[in-house]
Q: What sequence folds into this?
């Protein structure tokens, strides 16, 4: 079992396009995972309350999770767009292989 994207697609003439589709697919998976990490970090950092220091000092942080959620949303949207473009490239390669293998 191969775990890279589009592992069942074959080609004879468009190997660079297939390799780029696989790289873009892998990159989109990594971007989507990064977006999830950004959102999780934002939610975890906003849950922390004020920290008491020695001498009666209190440190308050004013982090809001909305900025992390917006960044995560924009990264996930770009990851989905990249995955769609990667799928279109893979579809072109698949159609090329289908039409050239039936002609030859």
A:
């Amino acid at each position: 079992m191969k775990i890279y994207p589009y592992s069942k697609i074959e080609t004879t003439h468009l190997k660079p396009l297939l390799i780029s589709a696989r790289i873009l697919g892998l990159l989109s998976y990594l971007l989507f995972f990064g977006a999830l990490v950004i959102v999780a970090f934002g939610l975890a950092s906003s849950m922390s309350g004020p920290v008491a220091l020695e001498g009666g000092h209190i440190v308050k942080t004013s982090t809001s999770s909305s900025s992390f959620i917006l960044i995560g949303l924009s990264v996930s949207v770009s990851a989905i767009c990249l995955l769609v473009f990667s799928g279109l490239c893979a579809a072109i390669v698949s159609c090329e292989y289908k039409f050239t293998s039936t002609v030859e």
